[in-house]
Design goal:
By secondary structure, the protein is α+β, with helices and mostly antiparallel strands. The chain has eight helices and eight strands, in the order αβααααββββαβαβαβ. The two termini are 17 Å apart.
Length: 214
């Protein structure tokens, strides 16, 4: 398997009668990914650094402070220079759009996956929605939930687990954008990371680091 095999392409296409166009950006287009998903890249690097700090309590925890202050997408690069470790081992950013001039919002899927130090699969961004099914504001369960979902997270997670099994990866991580998403991810076996960062972000109620040990 490769990272693209995790993406539930056929299931997404089956949800729509219209053509769905899929665009992928891999490590060769890392600069482009960093521009489009700057915040996610900062999150990927931040998650790896937090793991390193937990494993190396005597290190200088403030070594990358300036990069964190700027929410820099280059945190992972700064960590590689500081530690000598290969932090970002693989990455793939995928978007899918329905081809239909009758609707304003055409994106139906977005997924950013990364394999990071020490040997973790990170779901940095995931969205599966039906742009034909807007949700009235009074009926939204989650913040910034504008369209009904496609019900594909379980399939995505199963694909992630199969990838991890093949690659010898024993942990999947993600960040719950807001606290109201924590129960959703918990229902799939994720838990808030029991670390100072995990507890701090839980109290802050945004960007809450969660993981699932396989």
């Amino acid at each position: 398997m490769n990272l693209f095999d995790i993406f539930p392409e056929e299931s997404i296409r089956s949800k729509f009668s219209q053509e769905v166009v899929i665009k992928t950006r891999d490590r060769k287009k890392l600069g482009e990914i960093s521009q489009i998903k700057s915040g996610c890249m900062a999150e990927i690097g931040g998650g790896a650094w937090d793991r390193y700090v937990q494993n190396n309590p005597d290190c200088n925890k403030q070594a990358l402070a300036s990069f964190f202050d700027e929410n820099s997408p280059k945190i992972y690069l700064a960590m590689e220079r500081y530690t000598g470790l290969k932090v970002l081992k693989d990455i793939l950013y995928i978007t899918a759009d329905v081809i239909d001039t009758e609707i304003e919002e055409t994106q139906c899927a977005e997924l950013l996956l990364a394999v990071t130090w020490p040997n973790v699969l990170r779901i940095s961004d995931v969205t599966f929605v039906n742009p034909y099914a807007p949700i009235p504001e009074s009926e939204r369960r989650y913040r910034f939930q504008y369209f009904k979902g496609l019900g594909l997270f379980q399939e995505l997670l199963k694909n992630c687990e199969n990838y991890c099994k093949e690659k010898g990866i024993q942990e999947i991580t993600l960040a719950a954008a807001y606290i109201d998403l924590v129960p959703f991810f918990e229902s799939y076996g994720f838990r808030v990371e029991d670390t100072p960062a995990g507890r701090a972000f839980l109290e802050f109620e945004e960007g809450i680091p969660m993981h699932k040990v396989l």
